[in-house]
Amino acid sequence: METQDAIETRRSVHSYTDEELTRDEITEIFEAVRWSPSSYNLQPWEFVVVDDEEGQEALREDAYGQEHVTDAAAVVVVFGELDRGAHAERVFGDEAEKGYRSDESARKLVERFAEEPPEGNEEWVVQSCMIAATTLMYAAWNRGIASCPMGGWDGDAVSETLDVPETWYPVLMLTLGYPDKESDEWRRERKMRRSPEEFVSFGR
Ligand SMILES: Cc1cc2nc3c(=O)[nH]c(=O)nc-3n(C[C@H](O)[C@H](O)[C@H](O)COP(=O)(O)O)c2cc1C
Questions:
Q1: pLDDT in tens, 59-79
Q2: Sign of the torsion angle spanned by Cα atoms 129, 135, 139, 145
Q3: Which domains, ranges and CATH numbers included, belong to the chain?
Q4: Residue nearest to atom 4 of ligand 1 (CA)
Q5: pTM
């Protein structure tokens, strides 16, 4: 699919077919996600894919009963790793090796992020994780797999359901599956969008 087509035809889907998504298909989507940009290239994202009935039922409860959580083939929960030191050594070591920064600068950054507490990095992880989640939506749609990004869920409840580490901050939930093209939803025209004339200002 051309990039422009993918952008113009992606839509949030709530009606899915019963067709399953294989873990290989899902992994292929993540092969694209890994190339997303991130602050300092620290890639502070963790994705939990839930594709079993029981798990999806539990997440649906945490998402205030939203039906597409169980109707979709899989649900992805995006978490942000608040510990900026988690991958610092590998990331900055790679940058020093490839000439993006000096050994000295890499060493200082590794030290800085190793000492820093995880608290207060919530906004920092959300920025990079939302970009990765967006890559996921378009990489999926490029393969005909639809999604719906979701903010309507209880982060604490989902963290407990999935038993994730304390430093994983809940960012976004997404449903994934093949769209039911016979559904009323699919037949509807795409929702309105504001025009660039309205939302873009140039200069000050
Ligand atoms: C941050 C965010 C939170 C959202 N939360 C939900 C949600 O909890 N449930 C839902 O069904 N859709 C949710 N949506 C989907 C929006 O309703 C949808 O993107 C919007 O209506 C535009 O429709 P479209 O994506 O089909 O163009 C969310 C979208 C975003 C970006």
A1: 999 999 999 999 999 999 999
A2: positive
A3: 3-83+122-199 (3.40.109.10), 84-117 (no CATH)
A4: 150
A5: 0.97
